[in-house]
Design a protein that fits this description.
This protein is mainly β. About 0% of the residues lie in helices and about 60% in strands. A hairpin with a 2-residue loop joins strand 4 and strand 5.
């Protein structure tokens, strides 16, 4: 069974090619603005997933972003490739995310209909 260990939203996420370490910049635990709609110029997500030995290495995943009942991103394909490992990291960058109204921004990662 594939499990989601971390799903983190931030201003940016990057992986160092030499050390293979991940850095997360400015975790978004709250966003303040003068009014709405509000443009978040830099938005990134980091997902860390684990699988068991019998699980597929390239599962079909999607991600959703919403504020309340307002869908900002629906079933966007998210390519995941564990290769020969049991753990993988996936980063997503969205340049220019428009928040139409105040509320809680929810990020969801799915494998089929299964919400991780």
């Amino acid at each position: 069974m594939i499990t989601l260990k971390v799903l983190l939203c931030a201003q940016d996420v990057c992986r160092d090619a030499d050390t293979n370490t991940v850095s997360v910049f400015n975790v978004l635990d709250g966003i303040a603005g003068d009014g709405f709609p509000l443009l978040v110029q830099n938005f990134a997500m980091l997902a860390i997933l684990e699988r068991e030995a019998g699980d597929e290495t390239q599962p079909k995943a999607t991600m959703d972003l919403r504020i309340g009942d307002t869908v900002l991103l629906n079933a966007a394909p998210l390519p995941i490739d564990f290769k020969d490992k049991l753990r993988t990291r996936q980063t997503v960058r969205i340049g220019g995310l428009v928040l139409p109204a105040p509320g809680v921004l929810e990020a969801t990662l799915k494998l089929g209909d299964n919400v991780l």
